[in-house]
Amino acid sequence: MTTIAKATDTLTRDALTVLQPGFAGTTAPDWLLRRLGEGLASVALFGRNVTSPEQVAALTAQLRAEREDVLVAIDEEGGDVTRLEVRTGSSFPGNHALGAVDDVGLTRAVAAELGRRLAAAGVDFNWAPSADVNSNPDNPVIGVRAFGADTDLVARHTAAYVTGMQSAGVATCTKHFPGHGDTGIDSHHAMPRIDVDAGVLAERDLVPFRAAVAAGTRAVMSAHILVPALDPDRPATLSRRILTDLLRGELGYDGLIVTDGIEMKAIAGTYGIERGTAMAIAAGADAICVGGGLCDEGTVRRLSDALVEAVRAGELPEERLADAAERVRALARWTAANRPGDGASDTADGDVGLRAARRALRVTVAGESAPLTEPPYVAALTPVANIAVGDETPWGVAAELGRLLPGTETGSFNGADAGREALAAAGSRRIVAVVRDEHRHPWMAAALDVLLAARPDTIVVEMGVPRAEPRGALHLATHGAARVCGRAAAEAVAGV
Q1: Which tens digit of pLDDT belongs to each residue from 187-219?
Q2: pTM for the whole thing?
Q3: N or C, which end of the chain is more exposed by having fewer CB within 10 Å?
Q4: CA 336 vs CA 64, 101, 171, 341: distances in Å
Q5: Looking at 182, 205, 260, 437, which residue is catalytic?
Q6: DSSP per position, 219-230
Q7: What are the residues whose beta carbons fall under 8 Å from the beta carbon of 10, sequence distance 6 or more?
């Protein structure tokens, strides 16, 4: 079956309206523009679609020339997860750094400036912030994307972020409901399961989402996680108990509900994307995020066909699909009404990200440690990046140290021999060892053992969650790997 949408084909138009697909390239392909004319109401941007803010602005203008009220969505958390600055690293620290500072006014200001830059590029819907409480320190996918492990801290900063970003006219999408923080599995790869009772969930994981709802978040993103205390049979994205009874009913939320990427293995590997899409809308979701991996017209056709067939088969009430589509259109009306005018740039605060990164830096001195005056060797102990962060975005301190101390050299190391290889590469230079979540990677801790045994004057920069005991002649915790976090660390190392 091939969907051919006509102006009078309300069912098919509604099916297209609830999809939020991605595409390949830095300009809109013909098929995407055609689908916008047929009913598609949202387009998602990923790192592959971005080369510069100016290019994104031209792309979004191209989309709006076809459909003026199109929602343009992006996964721009700042910090480690950046799309607008995917090639350079973010100008804004991520949530964990903001939580470390714990100044809600600063969080609000960072979110407002990030929102202003998104709006200037024509993006009006951001799949952020993460409201997850990172209660599992071994969480492989949340980590520095969370404001922290304290429920109340996460709640107040989630609310501040929502308020700040939406003040710039960019709708927030608070995620990953009902909370992805207590997982040991990445839902990109398999189905995580959270085995705690409903009381723990209510007092820990749901509190930040209540704060987001109270702050007026325009959207909430569901998590592909199984939470037996809430629904023993279906993951949150496909659960009426969680999306309709809990989020809409108990939390009183009336905005848009968006799924996490439907092609993620937690859903695609268990239900398939067509069935998962229909089940999600039936459960209470209003929009289907797709395109992080699958980004072609065939995927859009498959999913819209699946929704139409589910309605015709009696598996999805037509009025539920119509309600979902209307919620998408309502959000589009909100973003159109709140789009900044020509004078919006007058409120720019371009340095707020760097100021926040500097305030988030924590420095521990083990002994005598004077600022470096000679170019060092930066040994980056590099773990495999999770899919949410990606491996396209540069991180570390080498580039920033190179600006302050020309001649700085660097290398990336991984695995059982990382420490010995780094020692050999460094030669006689002073070593700056850069790590990311040392506590989660035994090979990384072992590499640091080797470096510090041979070179006790090694400086250690932790750019993940600083759970491991500080060590080294100088230990810096940046609480994230954004470009500005690297700059703040480099300034401290060089004594600037």
Answers
A1: 788 889 999 999 999 999 999 999 999 999 999
A2: 0.94
A3: N
A4: 11, 34, 11, 11
A5: 260
A6: EEEEP--B-TTT
A7: 322
